[in-house]
């Protein structure tokens, strides 16, 4: 079993993915952590020092590596990973199931407001209103890719346990 979790930043891909993997006794791979380990640098540092174009090229390279993996695993992809180049096509062609964790804009904005200092693309959003407008626009642009997932898991105001049960129901 290979599960690829996709969705906007703050949608809970890593949290839900880790919980699902643990419950199903699967390996868990956080793609952002994988990329940081391979680059020996944080994503924020990569963005600051080398720019987004370099980051996206490296992201594509490491995604290719992960998609070639054969072990059972839950893979939490970066929010933008499926939205560049032919990444979504490659995800869909890989062995496994892609799952879009769909969270409403207002909920995403509330979650991200608390952690925007740790997210390079959000560092300039200095009011909750600006952040929500940014998320709304960005999510609209990315929805074309996200909605190609094999499974769309809509969550709104759910606890981790409720989201986990919904994911299990959708996949098992």
From TrEMBL:
Entry annotated with the keyword Amino-acid biosynthesis: yes
Name of the coding gene: aroK
Residues holding substrate: 32, 56, 79, 142
Enzyme Commission no: 2.7.1.71
Protein name: Shikimate kinase
Major subcellular site: cytoplasm
Compartments, record wording: Cytoplasm
Molecular function (Gene Ontology), one example: kinase activity
Cofactor binding description: Binds 1 Mg(2+) ion per subunit.
Keywords from the named record: Amino-acid biosynthesis, Aromatic amino acid biosynthesis, ATP-binding, Cytoplasm, Kinase, Magnesium, Metal-binding, Nucleotide-binding, Transferase
Purpose: Catalyzes the specific phosphorylation of the 3-hydroxyl group of shikimic acid using ATP as a cosubstrate.
Broad enzyme group: transferase
Cofactor dependency: Mg(2+)
């Amino acid at each position: 079993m290979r599960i690829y979790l996709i969705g906007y930043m703050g949608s809970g891909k890593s949290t839900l993915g880790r919980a699902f993997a643990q419950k199903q006794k699967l390996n868990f791979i956080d793609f952002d952590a994988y990329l940081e380990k391979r680059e020996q640098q944080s994503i924020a540092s990569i963005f600051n020092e080398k720019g987004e174009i370099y980051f996206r090229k490296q992201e594509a390279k490491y995604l290719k590596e992960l998609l070639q993996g054969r072990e059972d695993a839950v893979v939490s992809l970066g929010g933008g990973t499926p939205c560049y180049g032919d990444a979504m096509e490659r995800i869909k062609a890989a062995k496994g199931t892609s799952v879009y964790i769909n969270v409403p804009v207002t909920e995403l904005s509330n979650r991200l407001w608390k952690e925007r200092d740790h997210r390079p693309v959000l560092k300039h959003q200095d009011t909750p209103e600006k952040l929500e407008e940014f998320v709304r626009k960005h999510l609209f642009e990315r929805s074309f890719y996200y909605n190609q997932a094999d499974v769309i898991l809509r969550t709104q105001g759910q606890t981790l346990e409720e989201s986990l049960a919904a994911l299990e129901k959708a996949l098992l």
